[in-house]
Amino acid sequence: METYLEALDLWEAVEEDYEIQSLRENPIVVQIKSQKEKKMKRSKTKACLFAAVSPMVFTRIMSLKSVKEIWDYLKAEYEGDERIRGMQALNLIREFELQRMKESESVKEYSDRLLTIANKVRLLGSVFKDLRIVEKLLVTVLERFEVTITTLENTKDLSKISLAEILNALQAQEQRRAMRQDGVVEGALPAKHEGGWKNKSKQNQQENGEVATHNNNKRRNYPPCKHCNKLGHPPF
User: Fold this and answer.
1) Is 160 helix (H, G, I), strand (E, B) or coil?
2) For residue 208, is it within any domain?
């Protein structure tokens, strides 16, 4: 919100908390223009703050006259005092320490979960370094990433490795593993189809043999032809 108000050149209305003085008799144009600008900035700042909150919070701040009063109220409402922020940060850190990677999770899903908690801690004003996330990943990723971690231990200084570097290494192994599994499945399909065709071919040959045997037996049962005296075909 502070950044948004700064972008609109309205933050000074909160920071300076100026009062708009009444114009004296026969004011000059500069004074009139200055007073008008200050009024407009204060009104715009109020409008931004009113639009950013829920209807329930709006009913609490709508009666406050000064922009600074509104800002201080919102700050206390959403941010809380230092003691409350400290307790919230401790709860989030405890939640971070309990996280473990699930079998069904990808590296990105697990790292996003850790980063979400870490960013919440940072928003509360506590220091949370990327190195802590790196150490968490090294200890809690699944056993199938052990090869990558061992390689990193042998080739890198893990106390200086960046979060992006370890994520790239883990995701690369994950992609290679997925590609190998796809190759195994695709290799199994032609063999399955080939076996199916062979079985079908044998079945067709067997059926054709049975048909041929049946036809031969049938031809033997024909009486001698009255025209040529030969066996194996009907007289017509």
Assistant:
1) coil
2) no
